[in-house]
Amino acid sequence: MRTLLAICLLTLCLPAAADQRLFYQPLNRDARVTPAQWQKLWRATAAQGGKTLIVQWSTYGDSDFGGAKGWLANSLREARAQGLELVVGLYMDPTYYQRLEQLDGEGLSSYWKAQLGRSLGQYTQLRDGWQLAVDGWYLPMELDDLHFRESSRREALYRQLQAFNRQLDKPLHISAFSVGKLAPRVNGAWLDQLASLGLTVWWQDGAGTGRLPALVRDRYEQALPCRVGVVREAFRQMSAPGEVFKAQPAEPKRGTGCHAEAVFDLRYRPWARGVLPLN
């Protein structure tokens, strides 16, 4: 009995595996965080078992968060100093999802090519100008089974990502989510195909947005190959579709399978409260 209690207490005290990899979505309001607060935040992240920080983007539309000498770059240098590995996001178009809705065929292919070109330019800036020790790159343009439900779109995307990945010096990460437009088996095969390019592919579990019932989400997760990682959403969305996004922290689901896990987002973890503003 004492042995069992000791094991249980030890388990409760160990950092959660998913928190070893944490997404961080930079927002302009985070510029208010002081250097001392960043240092404390990254130190706490490491103390909680954090090993890898996946930064969703380094430029969002016209906002580059101060560039090479700005608050984001400086905070990431501090994160590195506290022992965290960095996977840094590239360029994100604020109108990305609207453009996916509007375009098709050659228009969509040309749009993706242009956006990958923007990200390639951002990659060069980060590599040569920011002088960060980076362990990987993240492509912020998330994939979903609504806009890529047609096999022709998925094939065109595959070819573009293949060419893009060849130009990078570190592994490329990309993520996807499901809205129920592809069968779980087909969705799993698609993500596995992308992973075959050497990409690190993440599937978002959807628990925070709640767009699909829990049983349906579980079916999608169960259909994933082991080499596709799972992002555990640590929030519950409070805003309705079409409204400005608002969410509250929630404890992420913990998996027991073969997948690597990450948590979205650092902003919602307990040790970031009072430092990174929620809404």
Describe the model.
The chain is an alpha/beta fold. It has one domain (15-272): TIM Barrel, CATH 3.20.20. Helices cover 38% and strands 17% of the residues. It contains eight helices and 13 strands. 34% of the residues are buried.
Number-wise, the strands total 13
What share of residues are in beta strands? 15-25%
Structural class: alpha/beta
The CATH architecture can be given as: Alpha-Beta Barrel
User: How many distinct domains?
Assistant: 1
Average the pLDDT over all residues and give the rounded result.
93
**Share in helix:** 25-40%
Count of individual helical segments: 8
Using only C-alpha atoms, the radius of gyration works out to 19 Å
The major sheet is characterized as:
9 strands, parallel
Overall geometry comes to: globular
End-to-end separation: 46 Å
Could you list the spans in which at least 5 consecutive residues all have pLDDT below 50?
A: 1-15
Question: What is the class in the CATH system?
Answer: Alpha Beta
N to C succession of SSEs:
HEHEEHEEHHEEHEHEHEEEE
CATH topology: TIM Barrel
